[in-house]
């Protein structure tokens, strides 16, 4: 009557049903914790200040340059404050927070990341940065970034232990808009010189390799 | 030997395979992607995703946001790569649905430009993206890695299936 396969089937079916119920319970309860007592989708705030850009010219493909044309690369330094501890509940494995900037160029709408961080526990959920440097150097796809108005936003993403990924945006206060100034004309030749020097260095390096 | 019974068993086996195939294809159609479920193969997204974690994909969105975790495949390579969107650029006009994405693994120090083929510095949402990660199950997919990478595991599984089908007669 009861063969090996039948027993195996019954046991595995029960295990699957049982774990599905547990997963559903975990996901539902963690969602309730995100919405009550306070809705984290609306009530997570952040403050940004002292955003200062700095620009360099790069000629590597890894810095957005194509056909050897120098590309404007922008980094920023900034102060940032936010508390992500309400996002931690029993289904939170980590929180990924990322500082992005939106800007419009002639034909397109863009969003780029300047800085991000992984928060793995509730004790580290208070973000307080003073004069922090951006993690990434950013360039525009079409032309340069000078003259563009960057609008900074701080987003978060909850990576759960099981279930759906949850995304949200903080309500940002402070001076989050910044217009990147154009490079001054008289430094342009200097930049070009630097670029050509860098190029020479690189070719030397490649020969060594 | 009862031929009718043996044929019925064969039919039953066919039914199992057909329903598994239908389930997969139905899911593909629903999520609009070639592989609606993928298993993470590398540690480039740690600690979010480890090797063996199972991800559920969705590809009915026409655009991705920065911060989305996407799966893409390079031209001519069958290895799906799971990384996060670092930048997105899309056209102002609604009619043009083009979007360019730059990706990076959370655990990697630099972005993915060196992984892209043909000297590309951006991915195209339309052509390269397999899907966006929506759901997550830990570790269960490790069985598939185990079976595909260890020949002993493969033979054990085959032996188990063969034995159970031989011994499993009513």
From TrEMBL, chain A:
The keyword Membrane applies. One of its GO terms (biological process) is signal peptide processing. Residues 180-195 have a biased composition (Basic and acidic residues). Essential component of the signal peptidase complex (SPC) which catalyzes the cleavage of N-terminal signal sequences from nascent proteins as they are translocated into the lumen of the endoplasmic reticulum. Essential for the SPC catalytic activity, possibly by stabilizing and positioning the active center of the complex close to the lumenal surface. Essential for viability. Keywords: Endoplasmic reticulum, Membrane, Signal-anchor, Transmembrane, Transmembrane helix. The chain crosses the membrane at residues 15-36. Pfam families: SPC22. One of its GO terms (cellular component) is signal peptidase complex. It comes from the Eukaryota. Residues 180-209 are annotated as: Disordered. InterPro entries: SPC3. Belongs to the SPCS3 family. It is a single-pass type II membrane protein. It is found in: Endoplasmic reticulum membrane. It comes from Naumovozyma castellii (Yeast). This is Signal peptidase subunit 3. Residues 196-209 have a biased composition (Basic residues).
TrEMBL record, chain B:
It is found in: Endoplasmic reticulum membrane. Belongs to the peptidase S26B family. The keyword Transmembrane helix applies. GO terms for biological process: protein targeting to ER; signal peptide processing. Pfam families: Peptidase_S24. PANTHER family: SIGNAL PEPTIDASE COMPLEX CATALYTIC SUBUNIT SEC11. It comes from the Eukaryota. One of its GO terms (molecular function) is serine-type endopeptidase activity. Component of the signal peptidase complex (SPC) composed of a catalytic subunit SEC11 and three accessory subunits SPC1, SPC2 and SPC3. The complex induces a local thinning of the ER membrane which is used to measure the length of the signal peptide (SP) h-region of protein substrates. This ensures the selectivity of the complex towards h-regions shorter than 18-20 amino acids. SPC associates with the translocon complex. This is Signal peptidase complex catalytic subunit SEC11. CDD domains: S26_SPase_I. It is a single-pass type II membrane protein. NCBIfam families: sigpep_I_arch.
């Amino acid at each position: 009557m009861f063969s090996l396969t039948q027993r195996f089937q019954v046991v595995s079916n029960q295990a699957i049903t049982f774990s599905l119920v547990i997963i559903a319970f975990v996901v539902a309860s963690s969602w309730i914790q995100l919405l009550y007592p306070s809705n984290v989708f609306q009530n997570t705030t952040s403050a940004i200040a002292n955003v200062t850009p700095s620009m360099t010219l790069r000629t590597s493909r890894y810095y957005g340059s194509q056909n050897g044309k120098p590309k404007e690369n922008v980094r920023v330094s900034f102060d940032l404050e936010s508390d992500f501890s309400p996002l931690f509940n029993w289904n939170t494995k980590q929180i990924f927070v990322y500082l992005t900037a939106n800007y419009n160029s002639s034909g397109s709408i863009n969003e780029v990341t300047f800085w991000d961080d992984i928060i793995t526990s509730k004790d580290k959920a208070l973000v307080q940065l003073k004069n922090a440097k951006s993690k990434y150097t950013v360039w525009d796809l079409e032309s340069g970034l000078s003259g563009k108005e960057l609008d900074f936003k701080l987003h978060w993403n909850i990576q759960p232990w099981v279930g759906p990924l949850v995304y949200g945006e903080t309500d940002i206060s402070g001076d989050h808009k910044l217009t990147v100034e154009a490079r001054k004309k008289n430094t342009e030749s200097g930049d070009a010189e630097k670029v050509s020097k860098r190029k020479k260095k690189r070719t030397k390096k490649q020969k060594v390799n | 030997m009862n031929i009718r019974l043996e044929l019925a068993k064969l039919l039953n086996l066919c039914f199992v395979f057909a329903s598994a195939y239908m389930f997969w294809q139905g899911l593909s159609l629903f999520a609009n992607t070639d592989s609606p479920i993928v298993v993470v193969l590398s540690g480039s997204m740690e600690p979010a995703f480890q090797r063996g974690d199972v991800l559920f994909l969705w590809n009915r969105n026409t655009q991705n946001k920065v911060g989305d975790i996407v799966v893409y495949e390079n031209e001519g390579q069958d290895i799906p790569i799971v990384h996060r969107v670092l930048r997105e650029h899309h056209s102002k006009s609604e009619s043009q649905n083009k979007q360019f994405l730059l990706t990076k693994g959370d655990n990697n120090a630099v972005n993915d430009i060196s992984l892209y083929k043909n000297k590309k510095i951006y991915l195209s949402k339309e052509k390269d993206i397999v899907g966006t990660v929506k759901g997550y199950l830990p570790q269960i997919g490790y069985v598939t890695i185990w079976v595909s990478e260890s020949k002993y595991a493969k033979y054990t599984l085959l032996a188990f299936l063969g034995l159970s089908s031989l011994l499993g007669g009513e």
